[in-house]
Amino acid sequence: MLNTASETSSTIRVASRWFGFSRWRGAGTAVVRWLGSVALTLFGLVLVTFAMTRLSPVDPVLQLVGDHASASTYAAARLELGLDRPLAVQFGRYLVRVGHGDLGQASSTGQPVAADIARTFSATLELATVAIVIGAASGLALGIIAAMRSGGIIDAAARIVSLVGYSIPIFWLGLLFLLLFYARLHWAPGPGRLDVLYQYTLRPVTGFALIDTALSGTAGAFRSAVAHLVLPALVLALYALAGITRLSRGAVLEQLGQEYVLTARAKGAGPWRVVFVHVLPNVTGPLLTIVALAYASLLEGAVLTETVFAWPGIGRYLTVALFAGDTAAILGATLTIGSAFILLNSLTDLAVARTGRGRDR
């Protein structure tokens, strides 16, 4: 019995250390603070979008009833929209609607904005995710090797790649890719997400073309989805690669000059062991932040790329809404992109903090 009790007590202590039961109080406070910070930021975003609706020169009533509506029709529509009430009441109603996923009706498509965003945001998410995987993998590798070979040919190449990625306008690079690989060499298909043959016959399941075409069992549809994804993903990946390469090179290069690295080298550790065993654990937080910021910038900055490649994502949807003066669609897309940016950054902060605590233990 004593042995059993001792083993049970030991198991509980191990589980407590593993799951952090002894730190629940501090962890709970941190989580509450994190959730409060996210909620407050999202509230501020909703407040800004509401202010945009009231400061916009576009009359939402005229968008609904048209320019030739009678005065009585205009008054009835204004009353139905609740624009005759105080701003505080209007904001409360707007907050409740947003909380229930009601973003209004898009005049440019005639569909609910939430339905339009559910359809288009998956396309942007798919494009940005593939781009960040390519950009992060190549950018981190190039940045780390450039730091290890500081002053060499690879370091110079990394600087040139970063300069090119930052200097060339992304829409010009997209047009150049289309001219070269589509119009001249015929290596890639044209703009769009799928060939016309599959565009209207594919049954959307997840909203992600790669997954839906794979589930359909049609090899031609999957090849078409991959082929259409290559050029816009490479354009965005080059943009992400530039920043990731430069910042990861700087982070690793700074650590290579620290005393613990000199000590490891003095003990006979090779350059690769120094980097992967000693340096990278100390720059995990900054590297996570770099990649997350690049991913967020791709989600919010894919407007020009989607326009050039006719990619049916939220960026192109926002562009069409801007030209049409569709206030509901503009604000819905802005709110969605802003919320994704806030949540991604907040999760990154949480992961970085967790990584730091893991190193401390």
Overall mean pLDDT: 82
Strand content bin: under 5%
| Ends apart, CA distance between termini | 33 Å
What's the overall geometry? globular
- The number of distinct helices, counting runs of at least 4 residues, comes to 17
Summing up helix and strand content along with how strands pair, one would put the structural category as: mainly alpha
Radius of gyration: 26 Å
Weakly predicted, low-confidence segments = 1-24
Number of strands: 0
Kindly state the percentage of residues in helix.
Answer: over 70%
Assembly form of the protein: single chain
Biggest sheet descriptor: none
Folded structure, characterized:
The chain is mainly alpha-helical. Helix content is 78%, strand content 0%. The chain has 17 helices and no strands. α2 packs antiparallel against α17 and α6 runs antiparallel to α7. The N terminus is likely disordered.
Write the layout of secondary structure elements.
Layout lengths: L1 H18 L4 H32 L4 H6 L5 H11 L5 H13 L13 H36 L4 H15 L2 H15 L11 H4 L9 H8 L2 H38 L2 H8 L4 H9 L4 H18 L1 H6 L5 H11 L2 H34 L1
Helix pairs in contact: 2-17, 6-7, 6-11, 6-14, 7-11, 8-11, 10-11, 11-14, 12-13, 14-17, 16-17
Q: What keywords describe this structure?
A:
17 helices, globular, mainly alpha, disordered N terminus, about 350 residues
Concise structural overview:
The chain is mostly helical and about 350 residues long. Helix content is about 80%, strand content about 0%.
